[in-house]
Amino acid sequence: MFDLSLTVEQQRISTELHDLAVERLRPLAAEAEAQSAFPEPIVKTLEGIDWLPGRDAFAAGAEDPLSFCLAAEGLAWADPALAYAWVTSRQVAWLIAACGSGPQREKYLPLLARSPLAPAGLLLFEGYGRAPSELEATARRDGDDWIVSAEKTAVAFAGRADVAVVIARDEDGELIGFVLDDPAASVRFEGEHDRRLALGAAALATRAVVDELRIGQDAVLRQSGLAAAIGVCRLAQAAVSLGAAESATRYAADWGLNRTAFGRPLVGFQGVAFVLANLFMEAESTRAALQEAVTSLATADDAEDRTSRVVAQVNHLVRNASREGIELMGVHGVITDHPVERIYRSAAVLASIDFDPLINLLVLSNS
User: Fold this and answer.
1) Are 306 and 367 in contact (CB under 8 A)?
2) Strand, helix or coil at 128?
3) C-alpha distances in angstroms, 226 versus 41, 177, 178, 344?
4) What is the C-alpha to C-alpha distance for residues 39 and 61, in angstroms, rounded to an integer?
5) In angstroms, how far is the first alpha carbon of the chain from the final one?
6) pTM, whole model, 2 decimals?
7) What CATH number is given to the structural domain containing 211?
8) What is the residue range of 77's domain?
9) How many angstroms separate the CA atoms of 89 and 73, rounded?
10) pLDDT in tens, 183-213
């Protein structure tokens, strides 16, 4: 039976991080977007949270994926771009902590532990709804080295990262990962200076190309456990979308509670109350599905399929929740005085990173 109960530490992450995100980080989100970088107060605030998962870059062990996801969800209440950047940095740390060799862990984890927003690149996603087992990135043996070719999408910290992890499939079709030093020297980034719909502060590249790159054996991550570690990374990213959806719904509901029409609050009308209630219930059921998926990654035979379904479900939710928030608030929802407008823009980008929005409906229809 699946146990929904959280440990004391996980409960703290779930509640305190949410409050901190809303009160101290959300007011700085507009400034981060305007600067296309995270201002020092954001970084200092995150550095001051000594119980934030991944603070040590998971050097103590990658054994609590649920806390990782809860933190991603909580930070998204502040700003999707901030949560996405933090998650990307910690995803790279998670993969190295979970599957890295002793020398790799010793070399890279202290580097990533310097800051919760330490620039790191994850070259995993390829768009178009591909699950990891369907990736087209290839790695083939050439003597003692590997030759890697890949085209990846939505890579954060483009041109700024000190370290990156690239995921491909080997000649047997098995997942394989490599750690890259100074990825800017070996990866061609495209679109990083384009005008952004959202997530501009995360320095996102539309496309990243690795062209016949020779990589030594010492850069290879251990393949045992790699699929599960990638699953954790995908679910942590889905948790960002879940937090953004919850944030938009809660903000719109609170706004509607304080706005009156015909002598009573907007949320008192059935047409508003039913929509909000459905979104809140969908968020709760989605969270349960995400938590079940993340706790069963190491043992489930269909872990990738479960993960993909949860990702699709979350992406569907964040699009609906952000749109309904905008519609409920009317003209107020599309002005920058309110975070719902930024979440709405971010939802389109977030939902397209792992599973394409057009494919989500097909996946959900078969669930």
Assistant:
1) no
2) coil
3) 35, 8, 11, 33
4) 30
5) 20
6) 0.93
7) 2.40.110.10
8) 8-112
9) 15
10) 999 999 998 777 678 898 999 998 999 999 9
